[in-house]
Design brief:
Elements lengths: L3 H21 L5 E4 L3 E7 L16 E5 L1 H11 L4 E8 L2 H12 L2 E2 L3 E4 L4 E7 L5 E6 L8 H10 L5 E5 L4 H14 L3 E4 L5 H6 L5 E2 L3 H18 L5 E2 L5 E2 L12 H12 L3 E4 L5 E4 L5 E4 L13 H14 L4 H15 L12 H10 L7
Parallel strand pairs: 1-4, 1-9, 2-7, 4-5, 4-6, 9-10, 10-11
Antiparallel strand pairs: 2-3, 7-8, 12-13, 14-15, 15-16
Helix pairs in contact: 2-9, 4-5, 7-8, 9-10, 10-11
Length: 365
């Protein structure tokens, strides 16, 4: 048996070797903190409504979890990637680790815990739309101490990508530790949890979809209401709204909600809108739409958001301006929907570059 000190020294040595390899190969060091799952996918003729049973095709099994998916997406475009997460000591966990290793993702910081590995049950219709139910399992056993130790042991990190399908303490530790290290952080609030509002003060780049953007803005308004009188807000059109409300019940337009989040963080906000593109609020607080890059074929949209976040983290680590990083990530996401499973269509850097050369640079509105 190794002593605790020997295990700690071994972990530091593994980190150092990984970071040295990253520098030698010109890779972009990215650490992903998030869920590691196994996805069980069933193709169905239509998504089941409440109380209905739908008979589908053959079930397939894939590696999944927002954290693991983002790590694979980052690795596919050439980054050196480490994932921090947790799996169970079961066959599913061993399979998830093997999948990540095959994708050249470093798994030294994946803890094995006495809880079943996370599983996602996914139905996908012919148009690529999906319904997902997740049993988080080991993901909720990921500890704050493990996350902090993993990040602090790394010699060099270009960006930390965090998703919220793990324990709340682990999410908080990841964002706070990244800020303490002075490392850029991408926070994907899927789902929006109570802790996310408080984490905005650490200036992560937040990447909600439209529903999550509304949920987070609603939580911010509720927090402001509970703490006292609200100040005026300026909307995307420059119009001032008294009390911070932009509609009945304090529900704002998408741009107003994104700007509210930006005012709480002072960092860019990137709202992913699927086929409708991206709403970006820059560091300076300027909100504009970036049209989507059309997908050549849509097979399965399950991993598009995870692809976006992983590749966005890579480009931020490379020092890209936020607009260029978002554009590159959006192209990657559009290509990802062409394969089955969350990772089946995740593109290489070469595929993204080819696609970028094929499409004209759209005007930003």
């Amino acid at each position: 048996m190794f002593s605790r000190r020997e295990l700690a020294l071994s972990q530091v040595a593994a980190h150092a070797e990984h970071d040295a390899l990253s520098r030698r190969e010109g890779g972009l060091p990215v650490t992903v903190v998030g869920a590691i799952n196994i996805d069980l996918v069933v193709p169905v003729p239509s998504l089941p409504r409440a109380g209905a049973t739908v008979v589908g095709g053959a079930m397939s099994r894939h590696g999944g979890g927002k954290g693991a998916n983002a790590a694979v997406a980052a690795s596919r475009v050439g980054a050196a990637v480490r994932v921090v997460g947790a799996v169970g000591g079961d066959d599913l966990g061993r399979g998830a680790i093997a999948d990540l290793r095959r994708e050249s993702v470093t798994v030294d910081d994946v803890a094995t815990v006495d809880v079943a590995t996370g599983v996602a049950l996914i139905c996908v219709d012919p148009g690529g739309e999906n319904q997902i139910a997740v049993a988080p399992g080991a993901n909720l056993a990921l500890s704050a101490a493990h996350v902090r130790a993993s990040l602090e042991a790394a010699a060099d990190i270009g960006c930390v990508v965090v998703s919220t399908e793990i324990s709340a303490d682990a999410v908080v530790a990841a964002v706070e530790t990244a800020a303490g290290l002075g490392v850029p952080c991408v926070l994907n609030p899927a789902p929006v949890t109570a802790e996310v509002v408080g984490l905005l003060r650490w200036r992560p780049v937040v990447t909600p979809n439209a529903h999550e953007c509304a949920d987070l803005a609603r939580a911010l308004r509720a927090a402001a209401s509970a703490s006292g009188p609200r100040s005026e807000e300026t909307t995307a059109t420059g119009e001032t709204k008294a009390g911070g409300e932009t509609g009945t019940g304090g529900v704002g337009s998408l741009a107003d909600d994104a700007l509210l989040i930006h005012r709480a963080s002072g960092a860019p906000v990137v709202v992913t809108l699927g086929a409708d593109g991206v709403l970006l609020v820059t560091t300076e607080g300027v909100a504009h739409r970036m049209p989507a890059v059309p997908a050549a074929v849509v097979v399965d949209t399950t991993g598009a958001g995870d692809t976006f976040n992983g590749v966005l983290g890579v480009r931020i680590a490379a020092g890209d301006p936020i607009e260029a990083a978002v554009r590159y990530a959006a192209v990657a996401a559009s290509l990802s929907v062409g394969g089955r499973g969350a990772r089946g269509g995740m593109p290489t850097r070469e595929a993204i570059d080819v696609r970028l050369s094929e499409v004209s640079d759209p005007a930003v509105s």
